[in-house]
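Homework-ish question, so no full write-ups if that breaks the rules, but can someone show me the predicted structure for this set?
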Amino acid sequence: MYGLRLLRARLRGLLRKKTVEREMEEELRFHVRMRAEENARHGMTPEEAERAALRSFGRWARVKEACRDVKGGGALETLWQDLKFGARTLRKHTGFTAVAVLTLALGIGANTAIFSVIQSVLLRPLPFPEQERLVVAWKKDMTSGNPLVELSFPEVRDWQARSQSFTSLAAMPTTVYGYGYVLTGRGEPVQLESAKVTGRFFSVLGARAALGRVLDESDDRVNGAGVVVLSDRLWRERFEADPGVVGRTITLNQTGFTVVGVMPAGFTFPQGVDLWVPLQATMNPRGLENRGAVYLQAVGRLKPGVTLAQAEAELNTIIAGLAEQFPETQAAGQRVVLTPLTDYVFGDAKLALWALFAATALLLLVAAANVANLSLARATSRRRELAVRVALGASRGRVALQLFVESLLLAACGGAAGVMLAYWLVDLLVAIAPGDIPRLEDVRLSGAALLASLVCTLASVLIFGLLPAVSASRFNLSEALTEAGGKLTGAGAGSKLRRALVVSEIALTVILLVGAMLVLRSFINLSRVPLGFDPRGVLTMQLRLTGAKYGTVEARREFFRQLVERVEAQPGVVAASGVLTRPLEGVVGWDQDFAIEGQPQSEARNNPNANYETINPHYFRTFGIPLKAGREFDMQDKQGGVPVVIVSETLAARFFGSADRAVGKRLKFDPSNQDEPWRLIVGVAGDVRYRELQGTRLDVYAPHAQSTPNLNHFAVRTTLDKAGALALVRREVSALDPQLAVSGVATMDEILALRLSRPRFSAALLNWLAVTATLLAAVGIFGVMAFAVAQRTRELGLRVALGAQPADVMKLVLGQGMKMAGLGLLIGVVGAVSLTRWLTSLLYGVSATDPLTLAFVALLLTLVALLACYLPARRAAKVDPLIALRYE
Amino acid sequence: MLKQDANLLQGTLDMLILKALSLGPLHGFGVGQRIMQMSEDALRVEEGSLYPALYRIEQRGWITSEWGVSDNNQRAKFYRLTRAGRRQLQIEGESWERLAAAVFKVMQTT
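A: Not a homework solution, just the prediction itself:
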């Protein structure tokens, strides 16, 4: 109660200063008049009485001052004065203020922006209830080392029947790739990706439709009714967000599908999918029941209380049982892999973003240390001013408060500038970030991020505001006053603190630089890997033959034969070919098991799977893949002819010793299948990085004329630009069949850039952060050394007077600076070695403790430190003893 | 030490002011006069202490003030004891009496 009243009174004193002052004045004047009357009554003349009254009233000013203490704004007024004084001081020291605010803004801005991205992408829960219980399941093969063995439909069904760990399980393909539909009758034909899922898919996820219904178990019928659920995006883009779409029939691959529901906007699982269709109704029934046809993964919801490890153990028992029951199709030696859904969705984007966040946190620390350092140095150089103020009666608490308020002001400016910078950086980040980071389009500066930035600001205020306040208010008055005249020693505790700050700044910068350099080197390594093909001038696209017209493999072969012929006849075209999966398409691809002629069966079983491509004759010319031996396919390699195959260099070397020796030998695909023929190796091609940039596998190629899988992609090597080449292909495709949609158009250079975009993004940002940190550290070292030299001017002058050479003085100063740098480097290297192992999965071709990188960073920082110390050292060497001894 | 002394003196002055006002509203000058009268000219309150004390007590809510007209027809600020002030006066008066009695006893001892 009292506190509230007091606050009101203080506020009134502060805000209505004039009124309060006037009332006080009037009251006191009344008092003087009364006193004068009193005096007159005692017999004085009016003039005498007046004078006496005034005298007895004491000096007006003092009384008023005493009253004002009570009546005025009090502590509030003090604070207000401190703020005004602080602002004036900051304005006066433009250089200091600019550097400090800029430093803070950089740290806070980068931190807020990156935290915003992480918050929107990673921390915001997926739109699934109790998402921590959701897992995605596949298998890994312990014998061949294959980390992703997919499941067959019967296997998922067996899991569902035998497992006790899940409330329910659903099946979906491991990739959205290869399940596309062409939507016709709604404008231009458009290629859409679908997810083929079992009916429980949506109930496992706990997802509801925005309109109509989701798929359920009633849709799980072989050759059932064609039903489809649409994505929000598709619904808006192609159906004008018409609620009446539910129940309507749409045409997908020339077949009618009834729309049963539309999903809400947030539901984008799996990513990039616009249609959800029932698996059983849309797959070939024979393939569905084939245990050898593995293309699925399971999505499951764990029962409450069941851990990932328990579920894994149970499923491992189940698959061991299945391997015994179906030895032909279910390999032994496999293990179940359960991945939490969140990890599955975010994958390695998670690690990259957290690494980025750690880097910005380091930068913020460096920034805060730097500002602390600047403030501390300034507080020290203001010791005399402060000492005088203490001598004039300011309490130490009062001086500390004044310094604290000043820091607060600085932090407020830095924080405001930081938030503005963050706004700008968020936009920049979203613009330059690789598009395959999920939910990136939703990123905005979030409240939590702003709060985090506020916390950052307050933390840095505490760090750099309180340290100088404490060290400045602790000093001994007489010492400070004499020191101000003397300056023979460094400034004791304050200077130790500053050195510690610089040392930690350097250490943090080392860690940041090492991490950034490692990621940069990985990116460089990755961008220099031999691809195995020549990406320049190659345009690729998805081209799927859908509909009854292409029901037979002969029809599909004929289409591609004609297309290649027509396209190659055009001017500017070097070569063209269809291919099962274009290089660098991602983790998707066809795994083919094989056996070499004469290889014992037991040994053949352990052959790793090869990446399988089925191609047209000019494929190798189109992609510029070198032939190491033998020949490419030609028109003679056709159905009914000698089955032929081309293998990769590594496969040839591994099984035949060399490329030349492989030609003329035979191998067989799918060895357990008696109908498979032996295929004659007619050529050996160079290794190609098909799945990922990080490495090659074994590759096998079969002519499309002798194999059944669809060609999913079409590629053309031309001397034309992208638009010209695309127009040409589109023209020829629609000349053959106007119902076909071309999608996923990209030059191989673009695909390569896309594959490199994540490592490039991480490398660019980390290095930008590291360079900023290095600059800040340099400013820090420079500041401390320059200040130390300025403080020791008299001592240095004395040394020179006593015969020290400029070189000696320089050595002295440099030595002092480099001692700090050395200590910082040492701590930083130890820190880096223990921290960078978290980066391992972001690295390629460089170890997390790469000595070269460490050495380079150490050298770089040593040079930076030398440079930062050199300028102050040179000034020290130029000290004129006469002036120095008279200094101050 | 000094601070404690100041507190003691201040507390006593506050109590005297409250006592003076307990007999009816007064302006600042009147408060000083009344304390002087009641002490039979023994206590003379310095204006430099009186007004800050009045403001302080007012902020504590023990007295309130309003502008009025004095006996000689001048505008003056009058102070009046509040209920809280009356209670406070009683508390302070009792504790002062205890203290005075104790001091008296000590001084009586020979």
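Now go work out the reasoning yourself. Hint: The interface with chain A takes residues 27-29, 33, 46-49, 51-52, 55-56, 59-61, 70, 72, 74-77 of chain B (CB under 8 Å).
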